[in-house]
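hey so i finaly got around to running the thing on Transcriptional regulator from Methylobacterium tarhaniae. pasting the sequence first so u can double check i didnt mess up the copy paste, my clipboard has been acting weird all day
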Amino acid sequence: MSRSLPPLNAMRAFEAAARLGSFKDAAGELGVTQGAISQHVRLLEDWLGSRLFERHNRRIAMTAAARAYLAGIGPALDRIADATARFGRDDQAVLRVNAPATFALRWLVPRLAPFQDAHPGVRVRLETSNASPESLRDPFDVIIRGGPDTFYGYVASPFLSEMRVPVCSPALLDRLPLRTCDDLERHTLLHTLSLPRLWNDWLARAGRAGLEPAATLVLDHFYLTLQAALDGLGVAMGPTALVAEDLAQGRLVAPFAGPLLPARSYCTYLPAERADDPLTLAFRSWLERQGNLRA
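ok and heres what it spat out for the C-alpha cells, dont ask me to read them lol
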C-alpha cells in the first residue's frame, strides 16, 4: 500500500519549530536560515490544507491542528532518528554511549579495545557530558554517571566504586616531602571548580581542618586538575579508579595511607526501552567485569 507522506524536510522544520517555539531556534538547530524554516512550514501547511502556526510579531503559537499533528509525528521522527543512529556504514550496529569527559579519557577509552575486539560488528559512538540523563537531547543506549540516582525512565546499575586520596608526582615529592598532613602547608593544593569542597572534607577527616597551604590552584575541569598533578604543579585529590594506572606506573604517588574520602560510585543508566537489548546488556556486563577487576 502506497504511503501519502509530506516532504521530510518540511516535517523536520515544523517539528523543530513546534518543539522549540521559534522559527529562529529551529533554524539554528537544523543549520538553515529562518526563511527556509518559514518556507518549509508554509509548504507543509499547503500540503495539509491547514494552518499550523499563528504568527504574532516575533513569536509563534501552535494551532490546535498543529498540536495534534506534532503529537503524531514527533514520536515517529524520534523512532526514525533512533533506527538510523543504530546503524552505520556496512550495516554495523552502533552502540551510543555517553560518559563524563574525565572518566571517558582516563578509564573508559583505555579499556575499550578488548570490547571492540570481542564485538567486531559493533561501532561504539562515545560522547561526553556531565548533564543528567533526563536532560540529554540525543538518545543513548548507555549513560554513565555517578550514583546510584533515580531518573524517570532509566534503570541504574553501579559498576565501579572509588575513594579519593591525595596524589602528586614523584618529582614534587622529592622536592617537598610529605611525611605528615602538616607538610601540606608547604605545598600547592589543586582544586577543581566544580568540586570545591574535596580538600576541606579530606582535611577535616584527617584532623587538620583549617590547614592553610602555601598556595592553591583552581582549574575548571577535573582532568586538568589531574594533569596539573602529573606535571608537578601541586597535590590533587585523586579518585582511586581514575588514577590507579598512574599509581601503578609510578607517574603519581599517594603520600598518605589515609584517610580515604568516600566518593560516589559510577553507574550505568539504561533507558527503560533499551534495558533488554542484548548489545546494551553486553556492554553493561563488560563494564561490570572491568569495574570488579579495576575498582
